[in-house]
Amino acid sequence: MIEKSRALAKTLPVVLSAWCVLHISTGCDDGDGGSQENAKLDENARVEDSQGGKENQTESDLATDDLGTGDAASPDDSDEDGSQPQDICEALREGWNVGFDVGGVKRDFKLVLPEGAASGGPWPVVFLWHNLGVPLESWEPFLAPYVNAEEFPFILVLPNDKGAPVLGLVDMEWDMLKVTDPEENKEVMLFDAIIESLDACYGVDFNHIHSVAFSSGAIVTDLLVTYRADVLASVFTYSGAYFSNPKNIDALPAMFRPLVSWPEATHSEKPVQIMVTGGDNDQWQIIPGMANMAIDFRQFHLNDVPFVTGQGRDVIVCGHDLGHAAPPPDMPMHVALEFFKEHPLGTEISPYATEGLPASFSPTCEYLPGSN
Length: 372
What we know:
about 375 residues, 10 helices
């Protein structure tokens, strides 16, 4: 896939794509009254903007927000006919990148670049996928302040969804439920396209491509691990799910089971993963008040830990009691960066196996070795 990325980078204008995910929460609020590092997302919170002010958005407002046009970009940012410049490096920029074509689908995403990004790098790349109903800007403050970290400077990528209604009941936003051909999956295509373009324009450190996310964004991350384990070095997920695991299909509400399927993994590489669960109440009700329509992320976690370690992959499992919310105060998202630095591409046995877990990790965390 690395070879494919480099070849496509020579001819692509700029590429991106969309598709469907199963995911959650609708707001971001400070966990300690002011610290973005300790902020958490839950169904009842408002959105904390990147300037620290409150946007009085309701849960319904957030579920229907359409960020496809981007607040920080305008049609003037692209060619008059709406297409991107032929030179992909004219199209990539700090901030919003709007209207890039991936497989015939116009996609938007946001870039946060480290100082000296144009120096040629190569740069680690971290993807941060938003969850259902929450604009990507709400997640940006969790990692954007760290792009210039001395020991691990990186390019931060925040993709935007395109919408994916299911049964007319809920917009799952990401294309992640039914995968027939992984090479035609819109989120896989988006991931490939961004990597190709970043490498052409800034230089990518192919030993350090990572993904971190919560809920539906975490499911997208798990999907990418399933079909891009040859590219993703290591990943960090809060309340995700592998739908290549038959037990997770069985755990879905009955009416959704026929709509969800993933083929088996396409690569044998074994990226190390941190998996965080919100405890017994880590659930989301598709239709509030209807218990038989609840998505049980706690059960997904219980199913996926042996599923992933059974593939021979090392896992660090952590927990909290906040339910379907993230990140918890004792496992803030920026600790992912230390983990990513220590787990480059090809790491199959975590250094934590002998060194123990970092002091920055939650005391609930436990290292579990792969079983084969």
